[in-house]
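Hello,

Our lab assistant flagged a job as stuck in the queue for most of the afternoon. It eventually completed. Since we weren't sure the result was trustworthy after the delay, we are filing this so someone can double-check. Below is the sequence as submitted and the structure that was eventually returned. Let us know if re-running is recommended.
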Amino acid sequence: MSLAQQAPGGGIQREKTVTVIESGRWTGKRTPDGQPDVAGQWSNTIANHNNWTDPQGGVPGDPNPRALPKTQRSERAPSRVSDPADGEVPFQPWAREKQQEFLKYFHDPIRPEYIEPLARCAPAGVPKSFTWHGFEIRQYPDYVLILFNSGWRIIHLDGKPHLPANIKLWNADSRGRWEGNTLIVDVTNNNAKARLARTGEFFSDNAHIEERYVFDNGGQRFNYVATITDPTVFTRPWTATIPVRRYTEKDQIDGWHYEVAEANTPDGSLKHERYERMCIENNGPFGQVAVAPAKK
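-- returned structure --
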């Protein structure tokens, strides 16, 4: 097995706009159990997890000038916050102060709580996982499985109730159903230890999330639309939108979107395989931008 190589130019794909995909009838292929067939490799199209409300704006205060944007804000992708219209997370005053504190110390984490959890190989959580590298969707009767670079999620379609409220998970507890081209998922039991981005946005373990995965009928794109309700932290419910596109073996393997390895098969051909848990298989930590290795 050979490690995936970074594509020329590297980095995250930089689309500037988010195209709305409407919920409606599904006319594409279906799985044997009747689900819309959306299995495959996917990745978001506008930026990585550096910045939540200015996805292509880098992390304010980054000491590396190459990591800061060279364009005007109007020339970059919109905020991931699609409602409210100003693109800002509607924090309560105390929570806004805490988010700014996390941001202030991101590049100088003088206390353990300031270290980005992903830098410790923790799961990226919900919804951040959709902005951290590409991911794979697999489908089974009564289940959708999503394999992320930093972990996995199982979405139950079998009507079972949520876990007891006292059980909290990094990737939460997900119960879903299909309506036409849209997978609607009710997300609870989030331990809220992950942050939304390197800019420090967060919510509490009281958060309730309704996710809508809205697929185009060509099976090439979907929009991840999540409405987050948490009266402990926010003044009102708010919605995030993350645009996503499919990757196939026609795309070049890279170190971000299509982060797979080539494996030999018995007949001598090659196939692409996703790493099971990149932080472990790569034998090294994430987040070196935040946590530098100790000097010898």
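-- support follow-up --
The delay was a queue issue, not a problem with the job. The result is valid. Helices lie at 93-104, 278-281. The first strand starts at residue 40 and ends at 44.
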